[in-house]
Structure formats: C-alpha cells, structure tokens
C-alpha cells in the first residue's frame, strides 16, 4: 500500500482545525455535502480532497487553503504582494475604488 504523507498531513490539519472549533465530522460533512465517512477518510489520509471541497473547508474551518495544504498561513506582506500583482491590470477608477 502506497502511503501519501502529504495527504495524511492535510488530513491531520483538517481534523485539528475541526476539533479546535468543536465541530463534528457530521457537521462538516453536511456543510460539504458529502457523507460523514468521507470526512473520516479525508482526515486519515485515505481519501483525497477535491478543489471545491477544499475551498468550502477553508471557509468552514476559518483557515486558508495554504494552511490546509501546506501547513503555513500566508503572511500579511505576502497577501499585499498578491493583491498588488492582481491590481496591476485594473483601471485607475477600479484602483481608486479599492
């Protein structure tokens, strides 16, 4: 059996975040629209997580996708850099609105 250590680490961060918030697997499953058993499989690294599920989980758990997938939060300076790159193509009026 092939062990995917990244998947196990992602599952561990999801479980730690869920339990910290006092949420049950059932509550998370209901919000994701998947069976409770699927949440259990994700948390133990036996099932991967789809992009849409990951985005929803990020919102449910109040953690960034970056934290869930890589274990690190984006710093404020990194966020500013990302916003600056995204704003490069905006018109002057759009930038003023920001």
What would you note in describing this structure?
The protein has 98 residues and is mostly helical. 69% of the residues lie in helices and 0% in strands. The chain has helices at residues 5-21, 25-32, 36-43, 51-61, 65-70, 76-87, 92-97. The N and C termini lie far apart (51 Å). 13% of the residues are buried. The mean pLDDT is 86.
Estimated radius of gyration: 17 Å
> Helical element count?
7
Mean pLDDT equals 86
Distance between the termini: 51 Å
Instruction: Give unreliable regions as ranges.
Output: none
Keywords:
0% strand; mainly alpha; 7 helices
What is the gist of this entry?
The protein is mainly alpha-helical.
Write the layout of secondary structure elements.
Elements: H1 5-21, H2 25-32, H3 36-43, H4 51-61, H5 65-70, H6 76-87, H7 92-97
């Amino acid at each position: 059996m092939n062990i995917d250590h990244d998947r196990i680490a992602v599952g561990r961060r999801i479980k730690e975040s869920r339990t910290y918030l006092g949420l049950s697997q059932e509550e998370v499953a209901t919000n994701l629209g998947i069976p409770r058993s699927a949440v259990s499989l994700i948390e133990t690294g036996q099932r991967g997580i789809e992009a849409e599920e990951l985005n929803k989980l990020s919102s449910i758990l109040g953690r960034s996708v970056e934290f869930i997938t890589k274990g690190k939060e984006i710093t404020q300076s990194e966020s500013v850099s990302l916003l600056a790159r995204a704003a490069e193509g905006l018109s002057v009026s759009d930038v003023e609105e920001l």
